[in-house]
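Protein modeling request. Please complete all fields; requests missing the sequence field cannot be processed.
Requester role: graduate student
Desired output: 3D structure, token encoding
Chains: 1
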Amino acid sequence: MASIDNENSDTKVHRDHEDESYKPRLCFVLCTRQEPGPLAHANDVARRIFGPHYEAEVDEANGQVSVIHGGNLVGILQHVGAPVPGGEAEDNAVGNILWKNGPKEVATHRSHVIVVVFRSEELEPIESATVLTRLAMMALELFDGFAVYWGAAPVTNSREVFELFAQSLADDLLPVQIWLKYSAERNPDGSFNLYTWGMGQFDLWDLELHRCRMDLADALDFAWSVAEYLLSEGPILKDGDTIGRSADERFPIQHAMSITPPRRPVYRIICDPDVQATDSKAAR
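Delivered output (284 residues):
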């Protein structure tokens, strides 16, 4: 599923967030059909994904679905019979190591669904992201979407990847795999660096794992563990702390400015096994 491709790790496509507090309030589901198709089963889908006390109001003529809970609007799915403007969805598939062929496949989309969380400013970022994830799952099923462009990272993931990791919500886990973008690039010495984008939507710093010599899959698991740890515990990693996958692994943490654009503060974790420190905090 994941691979390192230096050609595809070009970071110039990433949105330069002036404000790193950009919140997870909308995303876009990409579709191959230009027309929305029938939406008669929207109520059943809403109850299966959100719960038995949710319902969907359908405006079939305009391709719109509103999700309701207790008489209150939760979110809206609005079909648009055209691609996402400006090539944004394609650009933000570039460098995503979870979807190597993403840019080429995304370029085939003929319409999209705007997915919006209503009154997201009243929700905590994690709560808003959770609602948005469930709304996106609804849109994927109702409109037969094949990808999700998550604007707050920004990243475009395949339906397969999105649905796989969104399932973790049922176990009260945070699907950081689809809320953030992950890119990697190879260093001249054979090690690689792994980067995230999108932690700013949760008022946290992104991660840069430097000089990794572990397998890429292991590095991703480690990055996911650290990201989920920060989302659960807050910004508790201090400059000079250490962290690892076990009590015996001690990777130093630095507070640094990012190598990748946009320039922003990051947690830089030196994953070279030859650079170990004392007093490790094992990532959960």
